[in-house]
């Protein structure tokens, strides 16, 4: 399963694909992200682990404009997320500019969120046609190719309800790729799957990684993190507790909180 590279947009500069500087996020009085600093390099598979409620999803949602950060700076591919900087002043981007930034980021959720009334092919074609105003012929050709790549070339006419959870999640990945993102965010993409279906989704993610896609993966699949990940961050209670190469962090954690978490999931 190679050749996804064709659908991967190279980063526009050598800068980090994602850079967070002192990122905070509060919901009312609840202080959720408490100063996140990290860098995700182009082509990197960046794994994010941590206990439930530590702020992992919130962080991904900030990258993808689903939430607005409360303080700090967040950059994607060298561009400030949601703002334009002019001198030392910041201006909020207009809706259209936000939409343009979001277009470059693909996101895959725990729940597949496919459109139930559309076939697999139509699901994958939808955004390029509706958002990018691409011709149906071009969108269909790419959708077909992407579904082939995720191993579903023979399921293009199936509706979500006719597909297994693993197949639906692979359609969801193909759908995100159809927008030719430069960054893919995965939020526990296999957590809702029956155990026997996890492998087929991780295999697709591994292929994507081999083709050079920049990926941030929130996961409890430590095997995947160890084998495919380039970096790993352990987050707890809204802070980065520990980071490094996945093998190092997983086999030789330095902090008690990391040790305690890993002893529960490994
Ligand atoms: P994780 O993905 O690591 O499990 P989340 O980012 O989903 O953690 O959540 C972190 C904390 O933020 C949780 O306590 C959650 O209840 C809270 N939270 C998330 N979204 C909202 C929201 N929209 N409003 C209020 N609290 C929220
Ligand atoms: Mg979460």
Automatic annotation (TrEMBL):
GO terms for molecular function: ATP binding. It comes from the Bacteria. Pfam families: ABC_tran. Transmembrane segments: none annotated. Keywords: ATP-binding, Nucleotide-binding, Transport. Residues 18-262 form the ABC transporter domain. Belongs to the ABC transporter superfamily. This is Amino acid ABC transporter ATP-binding protein. It comes from Streptomyces hyaluromycini.
């Amino acid at each position: 399963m190679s050749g996804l590279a064709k659908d991967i947009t190279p980063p526009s500069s050598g800068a980090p694909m994602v850079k967070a500087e002192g990122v905070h996020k509060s919901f009312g009085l609840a202080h959720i992200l408490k100063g996140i600093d990290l860098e995700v390099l182009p082509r990197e598979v960046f794994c994010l682990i941590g206990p439930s409620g530590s702020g992992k999803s919130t962080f991904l949602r900030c990258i993808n404009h689903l939430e607005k950060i409360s303080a700090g700076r967040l950059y994607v591919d060298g561009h400030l997320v949601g703002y334009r900087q002019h001198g030392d002043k910041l201006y909020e981007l207009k809706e259209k500019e936000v939409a343009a930034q979001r277009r470059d980021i693909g996101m895959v959720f725990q729940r597949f969120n496919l459109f139930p009334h559309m076939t697999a092919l139509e699901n994958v074609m939808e955004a390029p046609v509706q958002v990018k105003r691409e011709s149906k012929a071009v969108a269909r050709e790419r959708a077909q190719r992407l579904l082939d790549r995720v191993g579903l070339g023979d399921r293009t006419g199936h509706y979500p309800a006719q597909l297994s959870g693993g197949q639906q999640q692979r359609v969801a990945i193909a759908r995100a790729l159809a927008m030719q993102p430069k960054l893919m965010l995965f939020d526990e993409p296999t957590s809702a799957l029956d155990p026997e279906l996890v492998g087929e989704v991780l295999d697709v993610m591994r292929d994507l990684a081999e083709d050079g896609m920049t990926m941030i993966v929130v996961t409890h699949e430590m095997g995947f993190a160890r084998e495919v990940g380039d970096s790993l961050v352990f987050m707890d209670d809204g802070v980065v507790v520990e980071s490094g190469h996945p093998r190092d962090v997983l086999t030789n954690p330095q902090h008690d909180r990391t040790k305690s978490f890993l002893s529960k999931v490994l």
